[in-house]
């Protein structure tokens, strides 16, 4: 991606008229940006600017981001591959997917685009981030397949005993009967890259065991998106070595970006063209 927000490759190869540009809502909600030039981008996230079209190929159509989401978002090709794997390996009878920490929508949009799920439920606690996800889903034409919730996923799904008043009972029931859960939790900021082996129990603010034990109360069928250097021995210890867990690395340009732990009754994943 060059300095200016223009993708020559996209423009040159388009036979049809250029995509309709979304008028920018002016002003955007607080904390939401659609940067159009690297000079607008805060210095500490400028290194992510050049990955813009890898993050969202439709960036130029007016994608909204928060500043944190530049390093938190799941890149489009990875999100699409995960969505494809979850669709192929979904346990029998499961037709609803929950993206419980949906960020600006990288995975949520891919799940909706996959066509596998009757409904995508997406939860995000940060209002500005959720505004981005909703807007981005519109750009990808899938907003009508997604139901959004703003709030703490543990409270909304009835997993926080101290905040039972915030539980959405219908959602909890759907999750238990028909749902699978995907969670892309915070990894504690960009510093996770420094760890040779990432300590999943030191993951902030939700250690692996907390995520696993909480979500198991709803469904065993959970996929967690974790750092590529995650300590797999910790997963085996928490899950139990007798239980099947599939670990899949998701790569771009030949190196792993992250891994997913497929916990529960997922079919065997047919891997090949990652
Ligand atoms: C790594 S990001 C998710 C990125 C997302 N997969 C995407 O592609 O945009 C984690 C998100 O979880 C949200 N989050 C953290 N704790 C949460 C909670 N308890 N309930 C709901 N959302 C939460 C954060 O605000 C952040 O946006």
TrEMBL record:
Q: Where is this region: Disordered?
A: 1-29
- Annotated source species: Cladophialophora immunda
The name this protein goes by in its record: Trimethylguanosine synthase
The UniProt entry's sequence similarity note says: Belongs to the methyltransferase superfamily. Trimethylguanosine synthase family.
Q: Name one Pfam family in it.
A: Methyltransf_15
Q: Which top-level group of life is the source organism from?
A: Eukaryota
Give Gene Ontology CC terms: nucleus
Residue ranges annotated as compositionally biased, kind Basic and acidic residues, are: 8-19
Catalytic activity, reaction form: a 5'-end (N(2),N(7)-dimethyl 5'-triphosphoguanosine)-ribonucleoside in snoRNA + S-adenosyl-L-methionine = a 5'-end (N(2),N(2),N(7)-trimethyl 5'-triphosphoguanosine)-ribonucleoside in snoRNA + S-adenosyl-L-homocysteine + H(+); a 5'-end (N(2),N(7)-dimethyl 5'-triphosphoguanosine)-ribonucleoside in snRNA + S-adenosyl-L-methionine = a 5'-end (N(2),N(2),N(7)-trimethyl 5'-triphosphoguanosine)-ribonucleoside in snRNA + S-adenosyl-L-homocysteine + H(+); a 5'-end (N(7)-methyl 5'-triphosphoguanosine)-ribonucleoside in snRNA + S-adenosyl-L-methionine = a 5'-end (N(2),N(7)-dimethyl 5'-triphosphoguanosine)-ribonucleoside in snRNA + S-adenosyl-L-homocysteine + H(+); a 5'-end (N(7)-methyl 5'-triphosphoguanosine)-ribonucleoside in snoRNA + S-adenosyl-L-methionine = a 5'-end (N(2),N(7)-dimethyl 5'-triphosphoguanosine)-ribonucleoside in snoRNA + S-adenosyl-L-homocysteine + H(+)
One Gene Ontology MF term: RNA cap trimethylguanosine synthase activity
